[in-house]
Design goal:
Layout (H helix, E strand, L loop, with lengths): L5 H30 L3 H95 L14 H11 L11 H13 L7
Helix pairs in contact: 1-2, 2-3, 3-4
Length: 189
């Protein structure tokens, strides 16, 4: 048996209601002749009364079927909504776990960066002290030979920006500043 929609059942109920109204009008028209003893009117009135009873019964059945169809649709909608909520909750939990993992990684990166930032000035001071001890005279006017930590901080601060607005990578600055020392032979310096 196919499922009937509330709209289809409403249409059938409306048709029955129209037929019922027409039949009741016939009963009203037959009542006076039947009351006066017209046998044909009495017979038609009896048939029309039976039809009215059947139409009322059919209309009640269709009204109940409509209520059942509406309840079924409501149940299905509730089940779908519950399934959608469960799926959304599952996605939310997965996203929350992923976000928590990212936060932990960010904390670890932050801690590592803090350690690097803390150590860079010390290493830089040691480097300049060692250059003086080795009597190597390099200009401190080259970008990145002093205060490299500031470039590291700026690189991290601007990392989320669009590429055109990001700071130059700290490693590029350090490479330009110190490659001359790293790649030099003793005679070059």
């Amino acid at each position: 048996m196919k499922n009937l929609t509330p709209a289809a059942l409403d249409q059938r109920i409306a048709q029955l209601t129209d037929t019922l109204a027409t039949t009741e009008a016939e009963v009203d028209a037959l009542s006076l002749p039947a009351a006066t003893g017209d046998a044909a009117a009495v017979e038609k009135l009896a048939r029309a009364t039976a039809v009215i009873a059947q139409l009322n019964s059919d209309r009640d059945i269709l009204a109940r079927a409509r209520a059942s169809a509406v309840n079924q649709i409501d149940r299905e909608a509730l089940e779908k909504a519950a399934a959608d909520r469960a799926a959304a909750k599952g996605h939310a939990v997965a996203s929350a776990k992923r976000l928590l993992d990212m936060a932990r990684r960010a904390d670890a990166l932050g801690a590592e960066f803090a350690a690097i930032v803390e150590e860079m000035p010390t290493v830089e001071a040691d480097l300049w002290r060692e250059l003086r001890a080795a009597e190597i005279a390099l200009s401190d006017g080259v970008i990145g030979r002093t205060r490299l930590v500031a470039y590291a901080i700026e690189a991290v601060k601007t990392a989320p920006n669009l590429p055109a607005f990001r700071a130059r990578p700290c490693a590029d600055i350090a490479s330009v500043a110190w490659t001359v020392l790293i790649d030099a032979d003793e005679q070059d310096i």
